[in-house]
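Hi Y.,

Following your request, here is the sequence exactly as I used it, all 157 residues.
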Amino acid sequence: MSIEKVREYFKNYGIEDKILEFPVSSATVELAAQALNTDGCRIAKTLSFSVNESPILIVTAGDAKIDNKKYKTFFGAKAKMLSFDEVEEKIGHAVGGVCPFAINEGVKVYLDECIKRFPSVFPACGSSNSAIELTPNELENYSESFIQWIDVCKLPE
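Below is the corresponding structure, written out as tokens. Let me know if you'd prefer a different format.
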């Protein structure tokens, strides 16, 4: 089970006890916000893409959307999300629990600058009913295969 992989991964940092598990689904931004009793923008959603046949993750704020022009400028390719069926195989977590922790080897992780608006955010922990509260710096430190902070999103007007 993916949450157990994440729990084992976090043991390396001594923070496995910070994982929150809910009796309800937190598989979407809206459901996670309800489960945590917080604003949806503070949910750190992890999006799965393919760039030149290689899987990448972009972690962004719950209210942000990928800006196709910024994405293409940065990655040199059109934004192509992994299909539902590809995500678990290529990333290591199923849709609803995708996170930048305990992922498959070779998956690069990018964090979008819009996360830095918040003192802390809540990414999933490998299952559709889990999360952990982390500061942006902690998110960077704990994200496996972290490459860099990027600006490829747009926020609602």
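The chain has a mean pLDDT of 96.

Thanks again,
Q.
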